[in-house]
Structure formats: C-alpha cells, structure tokens
Design a protein that fits this description.
The chain is mostly helical. It contains two helices and no strands. The radius of gyration is 20 Å and the shape is elongated. The two termini are 25 Å apart.
C-alpha cells in the first residue's frame, strides 16, 4: 500500500471561522463609514462629521482588525 502525504491546512477550522467574523466586522465598519456626501459640490454637508462616521466606524474597523490578528495568532490544539 502506498502512503500518500496528507495535506494539512495552515490553520484550524476555528481559526478560519474567527477570521471570517473579523472580516465581516471590518466590512461592517467600512459600510458604516460610507455616505454623507452632498449631491452639489458647492454645498457643504455636516453629515460627514456625525458620530457614526467619526467614532463608531473607525472603532469597528479596528476591532475587526484585532479579531483577525487574534485568529492568525491563535494556536490550534495539537494532538
């Protein structure tokens, strides 16, 4: 019988799940950051300086980056 080398993934299944959650949180942060522009370039819109775009969205993106870094650094349990 021939022993074929078994392909092994770099991360565990849990790591990939955490990574996908982190990417979803980053995407949510960028969606929260979007909008607030004005149709007329001569008119200034104060909507670009509201709480959602200045505080909430960047914090959400940073939390998402933290989650993805955690998923990369998390050690899979070895048997």
């Amino acid at each position: 019988m021939e022993n074929k080398p078994q392909k092994q993934f770099l991360f565990d299944k849990v790591n990939y799940k955490i990574l996908l959650i982190g990417l979803a949180v980053i995407t949510l942060g960028f969606i929260l950051m979007s909008g607030g522009g004005s149709e007329d370039p001569a008119v200034f819109s104060e909507d670009i300086f509201n709480f959602r775009r200045i505080r909430l969205a960047p914090t959400t993106v940073l939390i998402g980056f933290g989650i993805t870094i955690y998923s990369i650094l998390k050690n899979p349990k070895k048997n």
